[in-house]
Specification:
Mean pLDDT: 78
Strand content: 15-25%
Number of strands: 17
Structural class: alpha+beta
């Protein structure tokens, strides 16, 4: 059993201060900008993007951009930037927050760079196009109903209302014992080397992302903390097997149908499993629509422990997702909502499917291991 240095000492990334992004002033009928049309705005966006990049060997520049509308306001509130030499990033225009990004060579931008299209954005995974009066998900190709749109708008309004409070000092973050400050921003990590390269894990084919994320997290703790977390028969390559995922599914769901489940609702079965393995550690949950869960994500990472994190209690199972968060970048003198998280999504395929960066704004539940 190896002791990973990141479990004790936070990994430091090179980060710089984040300036506000100037709003892009364009006609509502034009959704695409080139680097030649808005050089100042693009340069400022590049500063934000490179500060939060997970690939520090590459200096990313903006190749093109697409304006995205908000369900909460009906206005253009976000911008997706396609990057050179690869990758994409989506920023919230008013505060320059990085909402999500993928910095890998096989990254596929969620929105096509096209003129004359009306695109909407409502957080990671919620990519929508409006065509002939019909809203359609670009991810699932499904037509969205009014209830979907209302749910997106309600959540997004809550997110936007907290995202603009940059003038307030975050005393709780200032008290964290984390790595030295670099240009106003710092970064913490727990198992970055392990999770950023993890390609062996189960398959989320029935909406069991919470259980799959727990299986991935247990695999990390088995590798670096206590090798009783995962039976050797369930270990595979550099991670855990689909058989282990299904074993945990059987314990969590029993005779019930498998599908979306909150971390807090899976705790009892998962902790019974840990007890059966003679493991003293237990999985706990912090969930709320205030700041508690977000602070917990940061503090656990600062102490060298990766966590589970779930997006939005308010949305239905089709739109919820639980991931393993192993890194965060933030400024302790700004509200916790300005933090950016690095995560393993549990999605198979290319590395861009499971290596993901997103704003902490969209996460409302944290699952963490305690002794």
């Amino acid at each position: 059993m190896k002791k990973h240095p990141a479990f004790r000492v936070s990994r430091i990334f090179r980060l710089c201060a984040i300036p506000l992004l100037l709003l892009l002033l364009v006609s509502p009928t034009v959704s695409v900008l080139s680097a030649a049309t808005a050089p100042t705005a693009f340069l400022q966006a590049e500063t934000v993007i490179n500060a939060r990049s997970t690939d520090k060997n590459v200096s990313f520049t903006v190749a093109s951009s697409v304006r995205l509308k908000s369900f909460a306001t009906g206005d253009f509130e976000y911008t997706m930037y396609t990057l050179f030499p690869y990758g994409y990033a989506i920023l919230y225009d008013e505060t320059a927050e990085l909402m999500e990004a993928v910095f890998t060579a096989d990254a596929v931008a969620p929105y096509p760079v096209l003129y004359g299209k009306t695109f909407y954005y409502s957080g990671p995974g919620n990519y929508v196009v409006l065509e002939n009066g019909v809203y359609r998900s670009l991810l699932t190709e499904q037509t969205l109903q009014a209830t979907n749109i209302q749910a997106f708008a309600a959540l997004e309004y809550e997110v936007q209302s907290t995202a603009v409070k940059h003038c307030q000092t975050s005393a709780a973050l200032q008290t964290l014992a984390v790595s030295p400050r670099y240009g106003g921003s710092i970064a913490v990590s727990a198992g970055w080397d392990y999770f950023s390269n993890l390609s062996d894990f189960g398959l989320n084919t029935e909406g069991t992302c919470t259980v799959l994320a727990a299986a991935i997290l247990f695999g990390y703790f088995d590798e670096y903390v206590n090798d009783a977390f995962v039976p050797s028969a369930y270990e595979q390559g550099n991670g855990t097997s689909e058989a282990f995922h299904q074993h945990l599914n059987d314990l969590v769901y029993g005779s019930n149908a498998q599908g979306g489940i909150f971390i807090r609702d899976a705790l009892n079965a998962l902790n019974q499993y840990l007890s059966s393995r003679g493991v003293s550690e237990r999985l706990q949950s912090e969930h709320s629509f205030n700041y508690n869960a977000r602070y917990k994500i940061i503090t656990e990472l600062s102490d060298g422990r990766p966590v589970l994190a779930s997006a939005s209690d308010d949305l239905g199972a089709d739109w919820d997702h639980t991931v393993v968060v192993y890194g965060a970048a933030f400024d302790p003198y700004y509200p916790v909502e300005t933090a950016t998280l690095e995560m393993h999504t549990g999605h198979h395929g290319s590395t861009s499917n499971y290596r993901f960066v997103a704003s902490i704004l969209w996460f409302y539940e944290c699952g963490y291991i305690v002794n």
